[in-house]
Every structure is written in C-alpha cells, then in structure tokens.
Amino acid sequence: MSEETSEQLDIMPMQIRVIRHICKVYGCRSCETAPVTADKPAQLIEKSMASPRVLAMLLATKYVDGLPLHRFETVLSRQGIEIPRQTLARWVIQCSEHLQPLLNLMRDRLFESPFIHCDETRVQILKEPDRDPTSQSWMWVQASGPPDRKVVLFDYTTSCAQEVPLCLLESYRGNVMTDDYPCSLKAKWAALMLHWHALTNCMASSVNSRMSAMSSVTSVVRKKACLS
Description:
The protein has about 230 residues and is an alpha/beta fold. The protein is built from 6 helices and 7 strands. Helix content is about 35%, strand content about 15%. Strand 4 (about 135-145) and strand 5 form a beta hairpin. The radius of gyration is 27 Å and the shape is extended. It comes from Pseudomonas amygdali pv. mori.
C-alpha cells in the first residue's frame, strides 16, 4: 500500500540550561609548591553568569528585533529566570566594549564609500543623568556601501549642532547627502565643505519644504485678500 505525507510547522520553546564548569585543582604532596587550578573556558564577560549564547540572544533581541530590555526581562521571567533589566543593560554595555574594534572597521569601510547618507532623528531619554526627562536628544545615522556590503552606523548625541556631523565625519573626504532639516541646511553646514567634496539635499525633503513654504505664502495672500 502507498502512504500519504503531510508537513506541519512546529516550534520548540526556548530551552534554558545551566552550564557547570568544573576546574581541577592539582598539587604535589611531596613538595611545598602551591596548588594549581586548571583554567576555565574563556568568557566574553569575566565573572558573569551569561554565556556567549545568552549575550548573543540579548543583543539580537534588543537591536535586531527591537525588543526593550524590560520586555526581555519579562520573557526570561516566564521561564523562571529572574534577571533585572539593570543587569541586562550592564551586559549590553560590556559587550559593546568588546565590539569597539568591529565598529572601528565598519567606520573605516563607511569612509571608503564616495557617498554617505546622513540623517538625524529626535529621541527622548527618560532617565539620563543630569538631564531633564523632556530634553531632546539625537540619533545620527550614517549609511553607505554597495548593496551587498551595506554599512549603517548610529551615534547618539545630545545636540544637533553642526559640530556633531563635523566630528562624526571629520576625516571623511567624499559626498554627503542630508535631508532639509534646518540643522542640515547648506548655509549652516558651509564650514563643513572644507572637509567634504559636496553636500547635497534629499530631493523629497526639498520638495516637501518648498510645498510647505508655498502653503504659507498662499495663506498670507488669502488673508490679505480678505482684509482688503
């Protein structure tokens, strides 16, 4: 007889385990030398209970999937693991220190491109030291590279002044494209032209700015017509 085959999608729930490292201690009974303990496996964060897999999942969940730390804390809590978000945040910071060489290489690759897209976006930090919760901060994104080797870097600052892009792209010699936001206008960035070959504006942003300006002019004309 024949058989029928059907397929069904299945997902295995998260599995959490404890890895125990046992280090042997050796000593010589016939001499007075101190005992010697075998080395433990190298860890990304010394004296931390987080394995490399935990740290990789933490970073991917936060920065790739966009899941905040307090929600990842809840995910672990459902599995019976209580790790406060403060500890998770410390792990993220410690991992970033190890990833700095990779970031440097990415910035070198960014500067090899003849064209860089640069944009700034407002962000609000609620519990930043020595700053009011309503203060505005900025996340600067710089993107370049061919389609198969894209480079995208994010830099956090508390200002959108022209000194910020000058610092971020100080050693860059190429073309920079920005939007039409006031802090990115060519008039304000004129000093930066000494460093870059060209500074161009996004066409869509420029058109939107002109449309807004035309709307304002139209409103003024209509108001004057009504008054006359």
